[in-house]
Specification:
The chain is an alpha+beta fold. Helices cover about 15% and strands about 30% of the residues. Bound molecules: beta-D-galactopyranose.
C-alpha cells in the first residue's frame, strides 16, 4: 500500500498535491545501485537535517513546512542518547525530546525520515551524545569490540527501534522512516582502535540488521561497511564518492551547508552557489540521496553543546537560520536546484549516466533512456574561467565552478552560479516597546546574589592530589572548585626582599579563575583547537594563611576523535608557587585539596528565580566575578523570533522562566584574521574560506524561543562568572530587512515556466526578476534601488554602473509597490537599451512592510532591561 505521495516534488503544483495527503506507506524499503527503492519505486531523494532538540515543538511544524517548501523529501535527525537516558534506565522523551512526535509531524507533512540512531552522534553535541554514566561502567571502552559497551549500545538502539515500531513509524509499517543509521563516521578514526575496530563494525552491522526494521541501514564514512549496510559519504563535496559494492546506491548523508562556530573563532559561511554546485555535481555523477547537514541548525540550549567551546548558536549558515527564518538566497537557490533535479528524476532513476569531456575541466553527463527521456548536466569545474561550451549543437554559457541542469537535454533549468532566488538581509532589531517594563525595581530592575568564592557546600570533600574534572563532576555542572590553604611563615623566602610570587596552574581546560585569599587574581581560557590552559599569575603571598581557590570550568565536552570520551579536563597540575627572586618553588599538586562540584547557587536552584536571598538595592554589583542576577521583564511584542543581546556581560549561563537558554560569552572576541567581506564561491570550499565576525564577539545574540515566554511578567536569571553589567542587556527580534535580486540577461528562465509551458513556449521565455516578501501579510512598500544596465555590488550595497537605464526605478515601482510579490522581465524591451552590445542585468533592492501595523517591531525607543 502506498497512499500518500512521497514525491514531494519541488515544483509548487506538485507540492500542493503532496500537502493534501499525509504520509502512509506500508512499503518495504530496499535499494539497488541507482537508489533507494520505496514500495517498488526507485527514488532520487533530497534530505535535510533538523535536530529536534535544537528547536522547540512549537517551532517544528514551521521548520518542517519550510523544509518541504524548499523541496526536501526527507528530514534527517540524530537521536541523542544522553538526552533520552540521562540516568541509566530512566528515559525522557518529553518536550523537546519528544522524538515520536517529531517523526510523526514530519510524516504528517508528507515527508520521510532518516533516523540516525548512532548512538554515537558527534554533532558538536556534549560528549558526542553518550550519557556520562556510560563512562563509569567498569571495564567499558567505547566504540570498540568491548562487551560492556556493546551491551549498552545494543540496549539503547533496540529501545529506539522498538519505540518506533510500537508507533508504526517505519515505512514498512506505514510510517515515514525510510532509513536508519548505525554508528557515525567510525571509519575516520577506526585505525586507532586496531583490530577490534573491524570486529566491532561487523557486530554493529549485524546487531542493527537483527532489529528487523524493514528499512535499510547506513554507516557513513565507513568504506568497509558490511553488507547489507550502505556506506555513505560526508563532506563539502561527494561527487567522486563510490559505494563499496555495485548493488549499493551513491548516498551523501552530510552535505555540510555551512559549518559550526566556536567561541573565540570567526563565524563560517558557505556561499549558496557553492552548496548548489556540490549538490548538482553529486546528482550529475550518479548520486541518488543527498542530505544537507544542517538544513536548520538551531540552538544548543542548556549545556548540550560539545566541542569544547562550541557556541550556543548552531546556526551553521543553514538554509533555515537559527531562528527559523529562511536564509536567502541559500534556501531559494537550493529549492531551484531541487526542482531542476526533480524535473530530471524520471530519467535519473531509469538509467546510468554517461559522462564525456567538453574540454579541460568541462564535463557533460547525459541520462538518456530508450523510451526517449533525456536529462543532462553540464559542469565547468574550473575555479577561474567562465566559458561557452557547445553541447548537442547548442551553445551554453557556463560560469567557473558551476553546473547547468538541462531536464530535456536542451534547455537550462538552472545554473548553480546564476541565482534566480530573492536575497534577504536578516538582522537583529533592538526591541522597541515602552521603556522599562520591569516589575522589580531598585533603580536598575535587577537583584543579585553573590556566589561565594571557594568551598561553601556540605558535600565538599577532600582528596590527596589533583583530580581530573570530568571523572569528579560526572558533568553534573560546568564547575569544580579546587581549594587549598597553605601557611607561609614570615621567614620563608617567598616573602623576602619584596620578591613577587607566581602561582602557576596547568589545566587540561577548559577555563580557570584563580582566587587568592578571596580575590580574583587571574583567569585563562582555552579554545576549540587547544582547550588546555597554563597560567602564571603574580600574587602577593602574606604571612600566615594563604587560601588558593581555583574554579575550573568546562565549556561543553569533547565530541569527536578516537577515544574522545577519555579526554579529560580540569586542573591536573602542576600547581606551584614560584618565587621570582630566588627560584624557590613549592609544588602544591600532591597536597590535600578540597573539592566542590558545582556552585552553591546551582545547589539552591537559583536558576528558577525563587529564593529569599535575592538582594535588591541601588548598589547593584557590576563587573564583579561570581554573581547571580535576576530580573523580570515583559516579552517583546509581535511574533518575530526573540534574542537577547548580551553585550556588556562576560561569560555565564542564562535562564528564562527556569529554562536554560545556554552558555553566553559575548566577551569572547573572534580573532582578527581571515574574514572576507565578499565571498568567492569559485573553488573548493573549506570552513576558513568565507568567515565573518573577525574582531567581534563570536556570539552576541542568544535565542529565546517564543514559547518559553509568557504574557505579563517573565523571569531572567544569569550566572555571571567573570564580571559584567546586566543593565546593558537588551532584547532584540530577528527580522528580515531588505529583499534583493540581481538577474542578468543570461540567467535561466524561471523554473515555474517548466510547469506551464511546452518546449516552444519555453524557448520564448526570458530571464525574469522576481521579488517576494518573506511573510504572507507583507507587501512591497518601497524600491530602495533599481538599476538596469551594469549595476554592481551586493544586496544592501548595490550601485549604478557606467550604463544604466533611466526607466529602471519607475518601471520596478509600477510593477511591485503594494504587492506581496512581483516579476519583471529582464530585457531591453522592458527598460529600453541604455548601452547596446553590452551584457546587462537588473538589480533591485526593496523593502516590505506589514499590512497590519501592530505586527511591526520597528519604531519606538531602544529598551534595555
Ligand atoms: C561530521 C559529523 C557530524 C558533525 C559534523 C560537523 O563529521 O558526522 O555529526 O559533527 O561533522 O558539524
Amino acid at each position: 500500500m502506498i497512499c500518500g505521495t512521497v514525491a514531494a516534488a519541488a515544483l509548487d503544483l506538485l507540492l500542493i498535491l503532496a500537502a493534501a495527503t499525509p504520509f502512509c506507506f506500508g512499503a518495504n524499503v530496499t535499494y539497488d545501485h541507482r537508489g533507494l527503492v520505496i514500495g517498488g519505486r526507485r527514488r532520487v531523494l533530497i534530505s535535510g537535517s533538523i535536530h529536534y532538540m535544537r528547536s522547540t515543538p512549537q517551532m517544528w511544524p514551521d521548520l518542517i513546512q519550510k523544509s518541504k517548501d524548499g523541496g526536501l523529501d526527507v528530514v534527517q535527525t540524530f537521536v541523542f542518547w544522553n538526552l533520552h537516558e540521562p540516568i541509566r534506565d530512566q528515559y525522557d522523551f518529553t518536550g523537546r525530546k519528544d522524538l515520536v512526535k517529531f517523526v510523526k509531524l514530519v510524516g504528517e507533512a508528507g515527508l520521510m525520515v532518516h533516523l540516525r540512531i548512532g548512538p554515537y552522534a558527534c554533532a558538536e553535541w556534549n560528549y558526542g551524545g553518550f550519557p556520562m554514566w556510560l563512562h563509569f561502567i567498569p571495564g567499558i571502552v567505547m566504540r570498540t569490540d568491548n562487551e560492556p559497551f556493546k551491551a549498552e549500545m545494543k540496549r539503547f538502539t533496540a529501545k529506539i527501534v522498538n519505540m518506533m515500531k510500537e508507533e508504526n513509524l517505519y515505512a514498512s509499517q506505514g510510517g515515514p522512516i525510510i532509513l536508519s543509521q548505525i554508528e557515525n563516521e567510525y571509519g575516520n578514526i577506526d585505525s586507532a582502535y586496531g583490530k577490534s575496530a573491524q570486529t566491532y563494525i561487523s557486530w554493529a552491522a549485524s546487531m542493527a540488521v537483527s532489529l528487523d526494521t524493514g528499512v535499510p541501514w547506513v554507516m557513513c564514512q565507513q568504506s568497509d561497511a558490511p553488507n547489507p549496510i550502505i556506506n555513505a559519504c560526508n563532506g563539502f563535496y561527494c561527487d567522486q564518492f563510490t559505494p563499496n559494492a555495485n548493488n549499493k546506491p551513491k548516498m551523501w548523508t552530510e552535505n555540510w551547508s555551512g559549518w559550526f562556530s566556536s567561541f573565540g573563532d570567526p563565524v563560517p559561511r558557505r556561499p549558496a552557489a557553492d552548496t548548489a554546485f556540490s549538490t548538482a555535481r553529486f546528482y550529475q555523477l550518479g548520486g541518488s540521496f543527498l542530505n544537507y547537514y544542517m538544513y536548520h541548525g538551531g540552538t544548543n540550549f542548556g549545556r548540550t553543546s560539545g566541542g569544547p567551546f562550541i557556541t550556543t548558536s548552531y546556526d551553521y549558515d543553514a538554509p533555515i537560520d537559527e531562528y527559523g527564518l529562511l536564509r536567502q538566497p541559500k534556501w531559494g537557490h537550493l529549492k531551484d536546484v531541487h526542482s531542476a533535479v526533480k524535473l530530471c528524476e524520471e530519467a535519473l532513476v531509469a538509467t546510468d549516466p554517461t559522462t564525456t569531456s567538453l574540454g579541460p575541466k568541462l564535463e557533460a553527463t547525459v541520462y538518456k533512456t530508450k523510451s526517449g527521456l533525456c536529462a543532462a548536466f553540464l559542469a565547468n569545474v574550473d575555479d577561474q574561467s567562465d566559458v561557452t561550451v557547445n553541447f548537442s549543437g547548442n551553445s551554453y554559457h557556463l560560469p567557473a565552478w558551476s553546473v547547468s541542469i538541462l531536464p530535456d537535454c536542451k534547455t537550462v533549468a538552472i545554473n548553480t552560479a546564476k541565482i534566480n532566488s530573492v536575497a534577504t538581509i536578516s538582522k537583529f532589531v533592538r526591541q522597541l516597546s515602552p521603556k522599562d517594563t520591569t516589575v522589580e525595581d531598585a533603580f536598575s530592575g535587577w537583584s543579585w546574589i553573590n556566589e561565594p568564592v571557594g568551598i561553601s557546600s556540605n558535600s565538599a570533600f577532600t582528596k590527596l592530589g589533583l583530580q581530573e574534572q570530568i571523572n569528579t563532576t560526572a558533568d553534573k555542572s560546568d564547575y569544580l572548585w579546587y581549594s587549598l590553604s597553605t601557611t607561609i611563615k614570615g621567614d620563608e623566602p617567598f616573602l623576602q626582599d619584596g620578591s613577587r610570587t607566581v602561582l602557576h596552574v596547568s589545566s587540561l581546560g577548559h577555563g580557570l579563575y584563580a582566587f587568592h585569599n578571596g580575590q580574583l587574581v587571574g583567569s585563562a581560557k582555552g579554545n576549540y583547537s587547544d582547550p588546555s590552559v597554563s597560567v602564571d599569575i603574580p600574587i602577593n603571598l602574606v604571612s600566615g594563611e594563604n587560601k588558593i581557590d581555583l574554579l575550573s570550568l568546562t565549556v561543553g565536552l569533547q565530541n569527536y576523535g578516537a577515544f574522545y570520551d577519555t579526554k579529560g579536563a580540569g586542573v591536573t597540575g602542576p600547581v606551584q608557587l614560584k618565587g621570582s627572586h630566588n627560584q624557590a618553588t613549592v609544588d602544591l599538586s600532591s597536597k590535600l585539596w578540597t573539592y566542590q562540584i558545582g556552585l552553591r547557587g546551582e545547589e539552591l536552584g537559583l536558576f528558577t528565580g525563587s529564593s529569599s536571598e535575592w538582594i535588591m538595592q541601588p548598589t547593584l554589583p557590576k563587573n564583579q566575578p561570581l554573581v547571580w542576577y535576576k530580573t523580570t521583564f515583559e516579552a517583546p511584542t509581535g511574533s518575530s523570533p526573540v534574542a537577547i543581546d548580551f553585550s556588556g556581560m562576560g561569560k555565564g549561563q542564562a535562564w528564562i522562566n527556569g529554562q536554560s537558554i545556554g552558555r553566553y560569552w559575548p566577551r569572547r572576541v573572534a580573532s582578527n584574521a581571515g574574514c572576507t567581506e565578499s565571498c568567492n564561491y569559485r573553488g573548493s570550499f573549506s570552513p576558513s574560506r568565507c568567515m565573518k565576525n573577525c574582531g567581534q564577539p563570536t556570539q552576541q545574540f542568544y535565542h529565546v524561543p517564543r514559547s518559553w515566554l509568557q504574557p505579563g511578567s517573565n523571569t531572567m536569571v544569569l550566572f555571571e562568572e567573570m564580571g559584567g553589567d546586566p543593565t546593558q542587556i537588551s532584547f532584540a527580534t530577528r527580522e528580515t530587512g531588505s529583499i534583493c535580486s540581481h538577474i542578468s540577461e543570461t540567467h535561466p528562465i524561471p523554473l515555474s515556466t517548466w510547469m506551464i509551458s511546452d518546449e516552444e513556449m519555453r524557448k520564448q521565455a526570458q530571464p525574469t526578476l522576481s521579488l517576494d516578501c518573506p511573510l504572507d501579510n507583507q507587501v512591497i512598500s518601497e524600491i530602495l534601488f533599481a538599476s538596469f544596465g551594469t549595476p554592481q555590488g551586493a544586496c544592501g550595497s548595490f550601485s549604478h554602473g557606467e550604463c544604466s537605464s533611466k526607466e529602471a526605478l519607475s518601471t520596478v515601482e509600477k510593477a511591485c509597490i503594494g504587492l506581496r510579490s512581483c516579476s519583471i522581465i529582464v530585457s531591453a524591451d522592458t527598460f529600453g537599451d541604455p548601452c547596446g552590445g553590452i551584457a546587462k542585468s537588473l538589480a533591485v533592492e526593496a523593502s516590505c512592510k506589514w499590512l497590519d501595523p501592530h505586527e511591526d517591531a520597528y519604531g519606538g525607543s531602544i529598551r534595555s532591561l
